[in-house]
Amino acid sequence: MNGSINRLKLVRRRIEKACIATGRNPDEVSLLAVGKRHPAEKIVTLYGLGVKSFGENQLQEALEKKRELVDLNIQWHFIGTLQSNKTRAIAENFQWAQSVDRQKILMRLSKQRPASLGPLNICLQVNIDQEPQKAGASPQEIMQLAGLCHGLDNIKLRGLMAIPRLTTDLNAQHQSFRKVKSLFNSLRSEGHDIDTLSMGMSADLEIAIDEGSTMVRIGTDLFGKRES
Q1: Whether the predicted pLDDT of 114 surpasses 90
Q2: What is the radius of gyration, based on Cα positions, of the chain?
Q3: For residues 184 and 134, which has the higher predicted lDDT (pLDDT)?
Q4: Are 13 and 20 a contacting pair, CB within 8 Å?
Q5: What is the mean pLDDT of residues 163-167?
Q6: I want to staple 154 with a disulfide (CB 3.0 to 4.6 A). Which of 60, 80, 113, 189 is the partner?
Q7: Cα–Cα distance list, 104 to 38, 87, 107 (Å)
């Protein structure tokens, strides 16, 4: 418990300091705890400390945790690679899908989302540095996908998600995050009612917040070392 308390305090302090440094209100940035390969017990601990949003990128692992933690009012985010054979389970079990990057996936999620659950919150994943090994749509494709969202009844476009390229060049990191924010602003200027910019992880949350992130996705710095 003490380890979880200390890790959470450190992460929240980093978020607060990053916001203050760039003149932002810390309340503008939400924390998404990423529980990949961590047991449900650790989620229970963080939940008891006030963390309510959890992200998972392995579907079967996420569904097992969700069943185990059914009594907790957790907001579940799917942040892993989205394939056609996963869309029904995601549409039926998550409040958010943050890694949408294709028209086919959007349409399946909308069709398979139970109306009783309300719209599924969607972030479009942009491959901002256009790395061939990474998932995500190109900036040009993002504009088209955003337009498609408004014709689908059971999803709600909330914003963008990005994982910029790994580099030790601080200027390059800033540029990548800045490009995501610019695309976000372009969508808003075209009339898209979006509010979420999911970017920044343990190693680069300060830079992401400086460039406009509204949601940081934190794993190891919250949960500790992952289990094999």
Answers
A1: yes
A2: 17
A3: 184
A4: no
A5: 87
A6: 113
A7: 31, 10, 5
